[in-house]
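Hey,
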Amino acid sequence: MSMGRQKIIAIVTGFISIAICIVYLLLITIFDFRTYLNDQLSNFT
């Protein structure tokens, strides 16, 4: 029975780590796009 619980904990931990990676990549993409957008706006004026 404990082997099933360990497997569930491993799967949940894997999903959590994948979710953290996806959120991190999205944040990096958003902040990088904002930097690009600010550069374009400052060149425009």
